[in-house]
Design brief:
- The protein is mainly alpha-helical and about 220 residues long.
- It has twelve helices and no strands.
- The protein has a domain of about 80 residues: Tetratricopeptide repeat domain (Serine Threonine Protein Phosphatase 5, Tetratricopeptide repeat, Alpha Horseshoe).
- Helix 5 packs antiparallel against helix 6 and helix 8 runs antiparallel to helix 9.
- It is elongated, with a radius of gyration of 28 Å.
Amino acid sequence: MAKDDEEVQPRKAERVSLMLQVSGVFLKLKRGLDALVDAYCRLTKIEPGEAKEVLAERAASLMKKGQYGKAIDRYNKLIHMGEENASTYHNLAVCCEREGMDEEAQEAFQKALEMDEDLTDAALSLALLALKREDAKTAARHLTALAEKNGKSFEVFYHLGVAHDKLKDYESAVEDFKHAIDIEPTYVKAHKRLGYAYDALGNHEGAVACFKKAMELEEV
């Protein structure tokens, strides 16, 4: 019996060792997934188009998971591989913006818009970035162009009002905020902004009415 016990112990030790080795392999595979994808593309000698497709899918997956830094690396690789299109630049810009890389985001949004003039999301993002850096003139230019294309966007008219307000063009701001409220009547900030614009024009009655409406909406 003692001999049997001696034989069983090494077998158990071997199984534990094997399990640890397997676990280690899986851990390394998980950590090195990105490297494996790149290696796969090289070793299998897949066509460039297929490699771009694999990389694009990986970039989109990382972006969806909120891993923007890693996604940025993938989108930059795609661009270096010649995949320069509006969609790639737009996604790169979104990731840069989420990472606080405003200058890089602005450049990428601009390139996306140059490639596709109908990419309204890029134009709106450029306007919002301009407002963020206190460049109301540039923001107003982008937003005015968007308003001409889409007269039913609350967000466009609201931010256009903000831009005009910063430029002290209060009459235009009033019209923009009124238009935004027509589209989205319950947005409290639009009523408040309209009130401030009225007040700047000396229309105190109109301002008070707007502030009262904002208070009513906040109580709902």
